[in-house]
From TrEMBL:
It comes from the Eukaryota. Gene3D superfamilies: P-loop containing nucleotide triphosphate hydrolases. Pfam families: Sulfotransfer_4. Transmembrane segments: none annotated. This is NAD dependent epimerase/dehydratase.
Length: 222
């Protein structure tokens, strides 16, 4: 089978990472992944979050290419070779990387795993107020004209939601099922190297920072 030329293949191969992947944070977006990112950064784990992917030139098209292979079977699936070309940090909280959880667990078998979770119904409410609100915003009609280069970001959010809802973008029951299934899958696949917690939203970064420091002192993360 032959595959079309991929954007990812135009990047130089990484023969050896500067530092091994340390932590895979595989909780879905809106489970305090931003607080987790801030805590990991303070502890010296460079992170690759959606806030890093979005403004980094050329990265969104690469992830969309990975999604196309994963969801539609178009091209070679992403693995260690592809991830090493994109991932600049040593830990991974949030989408789009989290949508490739199974592939990441295989690619980095020595990395510790953190799964952040929350009540499924509260999670859906949070996703509706954030990601759904963004993709359904009328501002995109203006941006399509004045800032067309922003459109791939909307496509990235749409594709992540399609993945989480198993192709049923506006079906909240399917989205809820996808959230629960994702967490169950991570618990099974990452058994033996998994830390799971449901952070209290009001504690924010302070709580997460304390939590990670606690386990670092017990040599669980390092």
């Amino acid at each position: 089978m032959t595959f079309r030329t991929r954007k990812i293949d135009t990047l130089s191969s990484i023969t050896k990472r500067e530092r091994d992947m340390q932590v895979l944070c595989l909780g879905l977006s809106r489970t305090s992944t931003m607080s987790l990112q801030e805590a990991l950064n303070k502890l010296g784990y460079g992170t690759y979050h959606c806030r890093v992917a979005a403004p980094t030139e050329g990265h969104i098209p690469l992830w969309l290419e990975g999604f196309d292979a994963k969801l539609n079977g178009n091209g070679k699936s992403f693995g260690r070779e592809e991830f090493d070309k994109i991932l600049t940090g040593f830990s991974l909280p949030d989408m789009p990387a989290v949508n490739f959880s199974e592939e990441l667990l295989i690619a980095y078998p020595d990395a510790k795993v953190i799964l952040t979770t929350r009540d499924p119904d509260k999670w859906i409410g949070s996703v509706e107020r954030s990601i759904y609100a963004i993709i359904h915003s009328r501002l995109w009609f203006i941006l399509k004209i004045v800032l067309p280069e922003a459109l791939p970001f909307r496509q990235l959010l749409l594709t992540a939601l399609i993945d989480w809802s198993n192709g049923n973008l506006e079906d909240r029951t399917a989205l809820r099922t996808g959230f629960i299934s994702h967490n169950e899958k991570i618990r099974k696949l990452a058994r033996g190297r998994l830390l799971e917690f449901s952070p209290r939203d009001e504690w924010g970064t302070l709580y997460v920072h304390f939590w990670i420091n606690l386990f670092q002192r017990h040599h669980i993360l390092m």
